[in-house]
Design a protein that fits this description.
heterodimer, A: about 220 residues, alpha/beta, 5 helices, B: about 200 residues, seven-stranded mixed beta sheet
Chain lengths: ~220, ~200
């Protein structure tokens, strides 16, 4: 009886072991970003304003929950860098990969980009023998013509990734969220609406050095 | 059994070894082979909130029963949308957007089986999925298997997972809204595949 009780206790402890906070180092790898439709626009100079955090207040202190076997939240998943910085880096790399120039001073750019993080969430679904992990990053992007104050683009982009495996720890969680960031980057790169906005925006072309990169890939 | 249940949660994952990203491959002509299969329409809601509680109480049998119960609940939740889903030619919508985007960019699409590259696209799972464990809203989703071969060499082998942007409670999701969102996502997925090929 004691052995049975001990076995059950050990099993219960094991299924409830997801405690504490794990900080993930996330970011878009340099080789993960590719040019897309935005590269067909003549190179623009854009000022990327400070990215704001507009996630729901009950989820703003973390990017995911660690749940035990009973579904109870026992810990949290966070990020080493603030999510706003991760998104700013993703946006900068994406725009630059498409041949555009991102500057830190507003006065230097005819276009201003405002970005707000709406969702930055890691989750998972446990099946009988598998676990499906989900990464969801949603960012509102607004582009304003600084000369006229006209908003030339305003939409929300969604980066999403899911992966079904036998299970996984922080390495897998990082891979899933990085893939969601990569998907966000591709969604932005491949946006025909954003391409049109950049094309039609009353913007002076960026320096000649970036025009070469603006040639379409295919 | 209990230990197995716990281990299934956090055992190490095996890294995918597939050619998930299409590199700067020279594509002279592309033959598109769209599988006519409709894939699996489903609602994923109850299964999203599955936990190991049943496994702790009833071992593998308990876990199996719990999974079956959740799957049945999801089947029941899918019923109001089945008629709308049956009218969605999901593969056709993906293929049309894919072909139109490629030809719109003057990409060399070929109907010839002897094209330099062959792209195979197959619809897998699609329907409505709960946004997260905590958020009971649902959004449309679509999973598509994409394989490109040059001769016998696989140059691209990926599993695209697209998810709709708008989310609402299942009770507030009408079959018409589902149909509209699903069609839009299918077209977007076809475009996305095309752009991944064009901007490889």
């Amino acid at each position: 009886m004691k052995r049975l009780f001990g076995f059950a206790l050990a099993a219960m402890c094991l299924t409830a072991c997801a405690t504490g906070r794990t900080e993930l180092t996330l970011g878009l790898a340099d080789d993960a970003v590719k040019p897309g439709l935005l590269s067909e626009v003549p190179a623009r100079t854009l000022y990327l304003a400070e990215v704001t955090d507009e996630r729901p207040s009950d989820k703003a202190d973390r990017i995911g929950d660690k749940r035990n076997g009973y579904g109870m939240v026992m810990g949290a998943v966070g990020t080493v860098e603030p999510v706003t910085e991760i998104v700013a880096d993703t946006l900068t790399k994406t725009l630059e990969a498409n041949g555009h120039k991102v500057v830190a001073a507003e006065g230097e750019a005819p276009l201003r980009v405002d970005a707000a993080v709406k969702i930055f969430w890691f989750d998972y679904k446990t099946g009988l023998v598998t676990v499906e992990f989900f990464g969801d990053v949603q960012v509102a992007l607004k582009v304003t013509d600084t000369a006229t104050g006209a908003v030339v683009f305003d939409d929300v982009f969604k980066g999403y990734y899911s992966d079904k495996t036998g299970g996984g720890l922080s390495k897998t969680w990082t891979r899933v969220m990085d893939a969601a960031l990569q998907d966000l980057s591709r969604e932005i790169s491949l946006s025909s609406d954003l391409m049109s906005a950049l094309e039609e925006g009353d913007a002076a072309p960026a320096g000649a050095e970036s025009e070469e990169a603006a040639d379409p890939v295919s | 059994m209990l230990l197995w249940s716990a281990a299934s949660l956090f055992c190490l994952s095996s890294e995918a070894e597939r050619q998930e990203t299409l590199g700067p491959e020279m594509i002279e002509s592309l033959n598109i082979n769209m599988s006519p299969e409709r894939g699996n329409f489903m609602v994923v809601d109850s299964r999203m909130t599955e936990t190991g509680t049943a496994a702790v109480i009833g071992g593998i049998i308990g876990a199996g029963i719990n999974s079956a119960v959740n799957a049945d609940e999801d089947k029941r939740k899918a019923q109001p949308y089945e008629s709308a889903a049956s009218e969605i030619e999901i593969a056709s919508l993906v293929e049309t957007a894919l072909r139109e985007t490629l030809t719109g960019k003057a990409f060399p699409v070929s109907e010839n089986d002897l094209a330099s590259h062959v792209l195979s696209v197959e619809i897998k799972d699609w329907g409505l999925s709960r946004v997260s464990f905590q958020n009971p809203e649902v959004s449309v989703f679509l999973k598509v298997a994409v394989v490109m071969k040059s001769g016998k060499t696989v140059v691209w082998d990926t599993y695209l997972k697209e998810s709709g942007r708008s989310a609402r409670f299942l009770a507030d999701t009408t079959p018409e809204q589902f149909s509209e969102d699903m069609r839009a996502l299918a077209a977007k997925t076809g475009k996305r595949i095309a752009y991944e090929i064009i901007y490889r």
